[in-house]
Amino acid sequence: MKLLLIEDEPLLLDEMESYLAEQGYRCEKATTYKEGEEKITLYEYDVVVLDITLPGGNGLTLLELLKSQFKDAGVLIISAKDSLSDKVAGLGLGADDYITKPFHLEELNARINALMRRRSFSGNNRMKIDMLVIDTAAQEVHWKEHLISLTKKEYELLLYFIVNKNRVVSKQSIAEHLWGDHYDMADNYDTVYVHTMNLRKKIIAHSGTDYIKTVYGMGYKFMAP
Amino acid sequence: MKLLHRTTRDFLLATIVILLITGAGLYLFLQDEVTAEMNEQLALQAATVSRQLEEGNDAHYLFTEISKTTDPVRLNPVYGDTLLYDPIQKVTEDYHYLDIVQNIRGENYHIKVMTTYIGWDEYFKMIFTALLGTTLLLAVSSVLITYFTSRKIWKPFFMNLESIKNYSVSDKTALKLYASPIKEFSELEVTLKDMTERSQREYKALREFTENASHEIQTPLGIIQSKLDRISQLSVSEEMARHITQAKSGVDRLKKMNKNLLLLAKLDNNTFADKQMVWFDDVISQHLETMEELFSVKEVAVSTHILRTPVLSNPYLSEILVSNLVSNALRYTEEGGMINIMLTTDQFSVSNTGAELDFPAELLFDRFRKSTKNIQSTGLGLAIVQQICQLNSWKISYRYADQQHVFTVNF
Q1: Which of B224, B242, B268 is the last residue of a domain?
Q2: A11-17: average pLDDT
Q3: What is the pLDDT of residue B339?
Q4: Which chain B residue has its CA at the smallest distance from A104's CA?
Q5: Both B324 and B235 in a single domain?
Q6: Residue B94: inside a domain, yes or no?
Q7: How many CB pairs below 8 Å do chains A and B form together?
Q8: Which domains does chain A have, with CATH numbers?
Q9: Which of A83, B144, B248, B316 is the most exposed place for a label (fewest CB within 10 A)?
């Protein structure tokens, strides 16, 4: 899986690259419009992560360029402007998803992952971790052949954990993923706790294994064997 | 008191005082002059009479009385007024007389000469009437002048005043002013034009500044957040973990604050002018579904009474409105409390049980106003709600009744 990250802020770019590389992606970076233009023209990527405000040009123009060359890459737009017009323009130009700064890297990773799943028409909609099998088409989770019955939110939570396995995921990040950032979640982190606990109990009941560890004060971590 | 009334009143008062003084002066002056003239005439007449008598002629003149007397000679004339009956006009008339006693040819004569005049009260009446007439004419003309000047000369002034009253620096259009040929007014017009244009420019710059500043803050915030997430991956001591968590919650608040400020700036800049038909009941249902777990964990019971209702609004803004009001209700409901959501075709209301506000209710929609009980909140949620309502010409109101906070939006 090959990614192109186009982002002008070097610190953020490094952070994105190092996390996505840990998740097994091959990443290339571009920090300017010119650099991005070159790489898009010369190489093929599975997903392009594209910042809108770039030195030397607008990310949306790069998107147009990409589409005009019939490149089969998924495009995820990053914008510091939480503006509807950018979003509409971006999606209208053929971008697949849109994320607003500042975001959690887990969220970015989950979006890229979902984008990959949507794009692989060949029906690779099963994820397997140890004996846990997740069917993303049916939104079902099995332990070996036993169905673990989860609520919609518990399913989303598990998927978020699995996509970001072996990483400490903060309560803030989970809350934003599950409920969006419309809600003032600061006093709703209890809800994250309750949901994680329920999920853990259900998985333990079937498998006898506690995959999700509490990291004191920080959040939770899905331990893949 | 209007300026015009004030100047008119002062002018009339001054006129009356001046006319009184003039009248009195005129009366005294005339009296003096006329008396002197009459006396002169009478003296001449008396001299003529005595010369005639001296020459031995008969002196028969009209209004002259000559009689022999034993009185001693008195050459100092005595003046006086008397009334005589006029048999033709059949009225008594005022007469002025001179009386002397003179020795002519060894005999003493009383010589009394008279002349008619119109009388001092007649003079007084005439002067008074003339001046009263003048005063009335002046009063009427100044009222008329005032009326027509206020209609003509002051018209641009009043029209400009009206447009200033209706003007706000947040208006998109420049202040519309009417030209006037009067120098003072045209100076005022130029000054006002300059001033409003300048404040409009500064206001615009300020608004853009807020929006730009919020944008610029996003990236560094992203860096801090991702770095904190990165540190969280390392194995750290419990103490360190506590510090990191606190730092994260600070970043979290800052993120939310910034997002809300950005939204407010955009609302101010009228970014969401496009409106379309939105099924408001769908918006509410979606939010309630997403928030279901948040209610249940807090054991808050939600009752709804929702009718199918279309409204005209920007879809994104109607979502924000619902989510802000509902999450506000959730935040201030105690555990085990109740939230009630109602939607009819002309009204949307959210009420929740909870203790009374610890600040005056009229400050509720102010920016950065929040209860001391909830320092985590940004204090911008309700300000945003109010702004959205204003934009859609909806009316938002708040009341506290039966231990319930009730927010009502009238479409």
Answers
A1: B268
A2: 91
A3: 92
A4: B226
A5: no
A6: yes
A7: 123
A8: 2-119 (3.40.50.2300), 126-222 (1.10.10.10)
A9: B144
To probe the interface with A, which of B232, B254, B313, B321 has the most A CB atoms within 10 Å? Answer: B232
Strands A97-100 and B107-116 come out as: unpaired
**Record: contact A168-B232, CB cut-off 8 A:** yes
What does residue A212 show for φ and ψ, rounded to 5 degrees?
Answer: -95, 120
The 3-state DSSP class for residue A97 equals: strand
Q: Which residue of B has its CA nearest to A12?
A: B223
Query: How far is Cα of residue A101 from the mean position of the Cα atoms in its chain?
Result: 14
User: What was the pLDDT predicted at B15?
Assistant: 86
User: Quick one: B227 exposed, middle or buried, by C-beta within 10 A (0-12, 13-18, 19+)?
Assistant: middle
Distances (CA, A) of B76 to B40, B43, B66: 14, 11, 17
Q: Are residues B240 and B196 in the same domain?
A: no
SS (H, E, C) A55-70: CCEEHHHHHHHHHHCC
Q: B186 with B305, same domain?
A: no
A70: closest CA of chain B, how far (Å)? 31
Distance CA A188, CA B295 (A): 10
In B131-198, which ranges are E strands? none
- State pTM to two decimals: 0.68
Residue A183 binned pLDDT confidence (cut-offs 50, 70, 90): low
Q: Is residue B13 situated within a structural domain? A: yes
CA distances from B53 to B78, B93, B105, B108, B109 (A): 20, 29, 9, 11, 10
B155 within domain boundaries: no
Inside any domain, residue B158 = no
Tell me if A184 and B381 make a contact (CB, 8 A cut-off). Answer: yes
Number of CB atoms found within 10 A of residue B62's CB: 8
Note down the domain range covering B251.
208-268
Question: Is B335 in CB contact (< 8 Å) with chain A?
Answer: no
B257 and B170 share one domain: no
Domain count, chain B: 4
* B237 and B321 inside one domain: no
Looking at the fold, whether B20 and B137 belong to one and the same domain comes out as yes
Q: Do B217 and B196 sit in the same domain of this protein?
A: no
The pLDDT confidence band at residue B357, using thresholds 50, 70 and 90, is confident
> Does B238 touch chain A if contact means CB atoms closer than 8 Å?
yes
Task: Give pairs for A90-94: CB < 8 Å, separation 24+.
Answer: A90/A52, A90/A60, A90/A63, A93/A60, A93/A63, A93/A64, A93/A67, A94/A63, A94/A67
A101 in reach of chain B (CB within 8 A):
yes
CB contact under 8 A, A195 and B293: yes
pLDDT tier at A85, thresholds 50, 70, 90: low
Tell me what the pLDDT averaged over chain B comes to.
85
CATH classification at residue B328: 3.30.565.10
The Cα of B188 is separated from the nearest Cα of chain A by a number of Å equal to 42
Mind telling me how many Å the CA of B401 is from chain A's nearest CA? 26
> Alpha-carbon distance A96 to B390, whole Å?
35
Nearest CB among A83, A101, A104 relative to B229 is that of A104
- Do B253 and B323 have their domain in common? no
Q: Quick one: tokens of B18?
A: 């001046």
